[in-house]
Design brief:
The complex is a heterotrimer.
Chain A lengths: L5 H9 L18 H11 L1 H18 L1 H8 L40 H37 L1 H16 L2 H16 L8 H32 L2 H8 L4 H9 L4 H24 L11 H9 L6 H29 L6
Helix pairs in contact in A: 2-13, 3-5, 3-13, 4-5, 5-6, 5-8, 5-11, 6-8, 7-8, 8-11, 11-12, 11-13, 12-13
Chain B lengths: L30 E12 L7 E13 L4 E5 L6 H8 L7 E6 L2 E2 L9 H6 E4 L13 H11 L7 H12 L16 H13 L5 E5 L7 H18 L2 E6 L2 H5 L4 E6 L2 E7 H6 L4 H9 L40 H5 L5 E2 L6 E2 L11
Parallel strand pairs in B: 3-8, 3-9, 6-7, 7-8
Antiparallel strand pairs in B: 1-2, 1-4, 4-5, 9-10, 10-12, 11-12
Helix pairs in contact in B: 3-4, 3-5, 4-5
Chain C lengths: L17 E12 L2 E13 L4 E5 L6 H8 L8 E9 L2 E2 L5 H7 L4 E4 L3 H4 L6 H12 L5 H14 L5 H4 L9 H13 L5 E5 L7 H18 L2 E6 L2 H7 L2 E6 L2 E7 H6 L4 H9 L43 H4 L5 E2 L6 E2 L5 H17 L1
The chains are: A mainly alpha, B alpha/beta, C alpha/beta.
Amino acid sequence: MSLSPSDDIALSEIGPAGPRPQAVGRELVGRSPGQLAWTRLRRDRTAMISGTVLAVLFIVAVAAPLIERLYGVGPQQQFQDALDSYGMPLGYSGGITGAHWFGLEPGLGRDIFIRMVYGLRTSLFVAVVAAVVTTLIGVAAGVLAGYLGGWIDAVIGWVTDFALAMPFLIVALAFVPTVALRFYGQREAEPALFRVAVIIVVFAIFGWTSAARLVRGQIVSLREREFVEAAQASGVGLAHMLFRQLLPNIWAPILVSFSLAVPSYVTNEAVLSFLGVGVVDPTPDFGAMIFRSINYLQTDPAYVFFPGVTIFVLVLAFNLFGDSLRDALDPKSSR
Amino acid sequence: MTLQERPLDRDAPGGTPVRQREPGPVAEPLLTVEGLTRHFPVRDRLGPRSIVRAVDGVDFDVRPGETLGLVGESGCGKTTTGRMIVRLLEPTAGRIRFDGRDITHTRGRALRPLRRELQIIFQDPYSSLNPRHTIGKIVGIPLQVNGVRPEGGIKRRVQELLEVVGLNPEHYNRYPHEFSGGQRQRVGIARALALRPRLIVADEPVSALDVSIQAQVVNLLRQLQRELGLAFLFIAHDLAVVRHFSHRVAVMYLGRIVEIGARDDIYRRPRHPYTRALLSAVPDVDRPGGATGRIRLAGDPASPADPPSGCRFRTRCWKARDICATEEPTLSPREGGTQLTACHFPETEPPQ
Amino acid sequence: MAPPVPEPDPAQAAQPYLAVRDLTVRFDTEDGVVRAVNGVSFSVHAGRTLCVVGESGSGKSVASLAVLGLHDPRRTRLTGQILVGGRDVVGLDEKRIRTMRGRSMAMIFQDPLSALHPYYTVGRQIVEAYRVHHPSAGKAEARRHALAMLGRVGIPQPDRRFDRYPHEFSGGMRQRVMIAMALVNHPELLIADEPTTALDVTVQAQILDLLADLQSEFNTAIVLITHDLGVVSQVAHDVLVMYGGRAVEQGSVEQVLRHPQHPYTWGLLASVPSLRGDPDADLTPISGSPPSMINLPDGCAFHPRCRYAGHTAGRSVTEIPLLLPAGEPGHLVACHLSPADRARLRERETTPTEVA
């Protein structure tokens, strides 16, 4: 049957195409496409569960100082007296006690739970800021390239290809230490926020391309729709065309790409920290914690376990939520 | 429902036909088009670069308050012509004059005042409305961006417009997806009316609609013309619809006008063989079976990238002779009439 | 329970090739159950053309796709009987239906470009269609059949066009290719879904002529789905008018177009702009919009748009009208109006256009 695509066409015709969405009496009062998507999202159990998980994690990250106060232990506090002479935590499974919920770090004896709370704060901050920055750059580049076309499109296309051709890890490995050295000497301690800013810049250089391509494609297909011509015929300016006519129609893919970008930055940031070019030690961070814990994989598996599981849950929840969001915003029959 | 067809609320249908008013004998045309041309370069990956002559030297005018019907088959350039007139496309050559001003190359801010007087209605009621805007916003945007501040506010004016086109003004806050095709097309008409234009280019406004809805929209356009004195350039492929809305008709074939004249002349005494073939191909409900006396054109229209030499219709014409391949016929009148025909061998007898 | 099936003409008392009895098609969607077809019966004899007329969402396409078994079995609930050459295809498994598709029944679509495969030459696609049902045929034999068919549907120089791709053909030529592909196995039943809607009038005329020629040659039964009453009057022997998933009127083309009995049919006929009659008079549309298939009106689905719904003492709002004989044999109508009322109202409704 490979030669008769007509069957598939017929299938799609017999499906939702049959009943065109009609004006259904008066009981349906002015529901915007956004409201419809929200209704669909609320009906989706995966979305609700993963959304709740994300909300809890975000609250924990934001409320870290408050948790520290309630918990009574700070991220830099060391509990050497709870370690044995080899530097390993006393007690079972990494020294889990009522005072130290997830146990202690071997060596320095810092509390793992409170370091994870702060580590979550670092990870989410880096990832969300990087996602916002890359999405903004990507949307701006994509909209301009898609709507204006011509040489602007060509130039943006070249720059995109150039950014895509650079190997991310190699550049990051070379870039981060060099920049750090340029601003702060060999011996100076660099402020934690500076390192974070450098990492975000690295992500921004590489990350905007996918959003730009996505948005450009969407805009190119929207440009063919007659409502764009109708707006031109009404005499609207460029800003109105881009922000009032076109952008509202691509919120859905932008939102989805944003929600899928955040988890990828979470893992990338952890990878950079793991490789030693990310956030550096006194600042709590998932990647750095996992990097340190690898040495104790055999002697203190609990040290790997908690940060590993948390980052896994975080990334999984983000991805599941992103997928549900896409289904809710863009069911096949929409438009 | 929300559709209010004024002449139809009575029990007896078609009893009181509302006549379409002839526009007054105004001499000055509102819109004049001379030698209008648009070529599109086409880059084919395999073949050499070619030029599609979508519109290739078109002349006509539209007087205030009248409808000029522009008919032709797909690819004849009628839509491109309409887009150039409302300045959505830049002409390659030729001149467009509106109300005495040359607007062929007006650009940017200078276009604003023109936009108010020249509007367009689109074919596809699904893609011509922004799905993220309420219909109130859609109709209101032309007022907003042109800085029009109507008495009583934009919302009030928009609701009046919705009422004019037969929609419920309370549906101001609804989204396009909540409306049927015919209702959406009414929203498109309201948007075109918002700035009180003098000329509307209607590009196949009813061809995407169901038959029973088509008639509603055609009647609405006729009513608007009667009440507001609007001029229309009515682009369509359906000759029967054009007949019910046009005072004059121009027939296009492969980027050229082959015949233009008063409606009754074109429909009763078509002189160009192509016009005859078009009219005879329209299936008629009242003549079942009806293959008798029909003109059957062979083949498809030639490609506008490679039009035939001489008369462009000659490859499908049953009257074609040698001269047709060498010399392009010009639009010329006969017996001092107003009907212009571009044919070396025009028909002289009315069809049976 | 099943509404009466129209009696075949005595002249062709043979079994109809396609007989659909009390067909119901429903599918589930996110917004509710779509009642696309609600108890429709019709039949087509070999060599005859049935035109199914209706607006978008009237169920006309769904009904005919169900005949070919081209519906999603997981979402669709199908009841009733569809006899193709005496064999009921309702509930038949996909494999058996596939052997019938192309061989005993075939379909042509409105948009040939999306129904033809863009990566294969048209010749290869027709050859493939032939060999699916003639597995023993050699390449050369299949090619000969395909070439003959391309020539038969009026494609000039078929041997040169054989190795071209669909995008290299014009709209009319593509539709001819589709017809060649559908008819290469000489199916007894051809279903054509708006085959000329996307074409220009001059090309439409060619295609309709071609279908008529091929029908007389192969004695094919044709179901032609259309919204264009002009096309109906040109090619139909019988007509089925659908509204809201139900048959509201059916009969011969003479009966339905000359002596229409249902107010919806009157409305359709009156709203078609014509090349004759008074061009300065307003057209006579049907008010309102077609109904939603999820939310069909109670009683007669047409009553919200019917000018005469008030003449039925409220029955049109509560009771679904049955498809009953309307005078002449074979002519059926589903309307609550009494025959006398209908005759009187039709007089008023159709007089202006018929006089003109």
